[in-house]
């Protein structure tokens, strides 16, 4: 089972085939904000680690303040670690309110705004506090129910994204599914 | 040099999709940022491809970084599947992406790479259109400095572009841009929608499919997400006009092959010196033709 | 690289292993590594990579740095866990573009370093590589000897032609 190497096993998160399929799930998630996309199955990672494996390598910086990725996987990613304020990618636990200021990019280079990968308990439909989404990629409105996202995230996100084109893009992920909230998505509703 | 050099079977060719995994990952990151900031020209490290820049390397890099064995690819150039550029790019994809199927049918394709046209048949949510872009920045005609253009884009400041359009109206009573018509995305960034005719610009508006633009030589990727406003830059009192294909009598010309009167037509110079008009989108034309033939048979 | 010292001692120090193994047929190394992976657990600590490295050298006149050119580089870092639970780490960084070879040699490196099962075969491969290297070196020395110029024949006292 160990040869050929890890990256050649089709069910590994490091294999090109997995990464291509997972990227397509992410691209669809960004194209249609708020719609849940299943991540392709893999044996050696779940949730945030899958997203990091698809998007991060030694050319980007990543901050993992809540230690959601195993040290072994951090080494395999080969990423440059950075402080939360400077990182291009931030992995965070959604159950706690954010306590950092991510990079928002600049007027001339808004793409420098961070991508936040937020682990939530579940993206599977709870209808208790549905969020209503509007914006590019959404025909009319899109509703989204999820569990395990602290209210602080939505308030902070609104503050970070108040000066378009600068802002941050969110990827919400549970163990098997992903939802993207690019900076253009307007969110209303929610808990409390 | 090394007499022991042997390549095992698994390594004696390029990896799936020609690009290495690092290149794909970078382009993938840039695509997600481009979707998040609709219309913003996101810079990326355009790779050397085994063809000249300007032959569709931007669109090709988009395609190769996202294509997988489940995909069905269609490549068109000026609406045609059979022109040199389209055939070569399609062959390259077939060569470097084993298991990927290719098609000429717009409806069967999951990925469509195109040069100068948006297909006539409306695209669906499960399709992606990758456009090859020669010149990504519409502001380049009014501002030579890229640093200044980036600030103007960020501020949504298109006053000088509007002035240029106004000058056209004063001189010619008509905005003279025939293709690459500046189009405002989601009320902020103005894009160069690549050399598609004006006729295709309304198809960008609230499209069901994701539209991606890749400029390989200029090293930029930008996107029009699905269900996003794409409004050609116009004045309140001068509405946007598309090519109408009226003849001298004010009658809409029809395709001389399939008879369609609701498609973009190419003007052909025939050998006897006369002119003819034909659908530019060959797949659309074939479909119309098949429908007419079927209709004639049943009648 | 002090070859005199390493050729004398057997087995050679770990720093010389890669040099010898990469002189042996790559196919043998890869077959052996696959065999080891068949009964040991092999994990990638970093993902094997290959690519081009830029080599920077100072020129001899002004001591300015310039790029000599690109060299192929491949790299692998693995962990091998034997059936009895013994763990060993091995690594390889080669001037070669074959990722699979770097990974195979990293597996051999770990196996031989911790004397895991099959390390005898790895040792034998080391011998093969060393023999090849010595052969190459001998043939090069022969070429060098055959082109050696005996300068003593040139100096017969009449060379002061600038006066």
Entry keywords:
heterotrimer, A: 192 residues, alpha/beta, Rossmann fold, 7-stranded mixed beta sheet, 4 helices, 21% helix, globular, C: 163 residues, alpha+beta, 5 helices, lyase activity (chain C)
TL;DR of this structure?
Chain A: Pfam families: PhnH (PF05845). The complex is a heterotrimer of chains A (192), B (299) and C (163). Chain A is α/β, with parallel strands linked by helices.
Strand content of chain B: 15-25%
Instruction: Show unreliable segments of chain A.
Output: none
Structural class of chain B: alpha/beta
Tell me the CATH superfamily of the largest domain in chain B.
Bacterial phosphonate metabolism protein PhnH
- Overall pLDDT score of chain A: 91
> What is the terminal-to-terminal distance of chain A?
50 Å
Secondary-structure element series of chain B: HEHEHEEEHHEEHEEEEEH
Task: Give Rg of chain A in angstroms.
Answer: 16 Å
Shape of chain B: globular
Count of helical stretches of chain A: 4
Strand order of the largest sheet of chain A: 1-9-8-5-4-2-3
CATH uppermost class of chain A: Alpha Beta
**CATH architecture label of chain A:** 3-Layer(aba) Sandwich
Catalytic activity (chain B): alpha-D-ribose 1-methylphosphonate 5-phosphate + AH2 + S-adenosyl-L-methionine = alpha-D-ribose 1,2-cyclic phosphate 5-phosphate + methane + 5'-deoxyadenosine + L-methionine + A + H(+)
Pfam families (chain B): PhnJ
Enzyme class (chain B): lyase
InterPro entries (chain B): PhnJ (IPR010306)
Tell me what the structure shows.
The complex is a heterotrimer of chains A (192), B (299) and C (163). Chain A is an alpha/beta fold and 192 residues long. Chain A has one domain (6-189): 3-Layer(aba) Sandwich (Rossmann fold). Helices cover 21% and strands 20% of the residues of chain A. Chain A is globular, with a radius of gyration of 16 Å. The model of chain A has no long low-confidence stretch (mean pLDDT 91). Chain B is of the alpha/beta class. The longest helix of chain B has 17 residues, at 282-298. Chain B is globular. The mean pLDDT of chain B is 92. Chain C is 45% helix and 26% strand. Chain C has five helices and three strands. Chain C has a three-stranded antiparallel beta sheet with strand order 1-2-3. In chain C, a hairpin with a 6-residue loop joins strand 1 and strand 2. Chain C starts with a helix and ends in a 17-residue tail after the last helix. Chains in contact: A-B, A-C, B-C. The interface between A and B is large, with 38 and 46 residues.
